[in-house]
Amino acid sequence: MIRRPPRSTRKESSAASDVYKRQKIHPLDLQPRKVVGVSIPLSGRAVFNPTYETKDAIRTNLINYFLTGLGERYLNPTFGPELRNLMFENINQEMFSRVKSAVQRGLSEYFPRIKPTDFQVLGNPDSNTVTLLLRYAIQDTSIEDEVVINFEQ
User: Could you count the other beta carbons within 10 Å of the beta carbon of residue 54?
Assistant: First the structure.
């Protein structure tokens, strides 16, 4: 039996892939004219405002997820946390823990690449407001961002 050394098929890498490997930028962000998603609210010149970076698209998707009620999407009835229903309950620690578990369950199911670094549910019973603060990082990239949503009555 003749043993041969393993073949090394070295591919030349492009400058864009080198930048991705060093800085961990999402590959779509290296294509400046490529639209990644649509931003909310839908009120642009042609109704849709495009987003050109992964960070903006994921942030918009998270806001859309938080503002969608459970069962609101016709063909995807499990999309969206039950936040609207929980907002009509008394503001207390039990409600905060239910909101946190609903959000964490949804993030793990619909946004598996998002890793929360800080998640807070803050409430003010006197003014009937609840604030969600989610700081997160996107796995395998250097992208970090936060989403703040205020629920007021």
Answer: 18
Q: Is 82 helix (H, G, I), strand (E, B) or coil?
A: coil
- Minimal CA–CA distance to 40: which of 60, 65, 67? 60
Phi and psi angles of residue 23, each rounded to the nearest 5 degrees, phi first: -100, -5
The DSSP secondary structure of 10-40, one letter per residue, reads PPPPPHHHHHHHHH---GGGGSTT---EEEE
- For 63, list phi and psi in degrees, rounded to 5: -60, -45
- State yes or no: pLDDT of 62 exceeds 80: yes
What is the value of pTM for the model shown? 0.69
CB 49 within 8 A of CB 90: no
Confidence of residue 91 (pLDDT cuts 50, 70, 90): confident
What beta strand segments (E) does 5-143 contain?
A: 37-44, 47-51, 114-124, 129-138
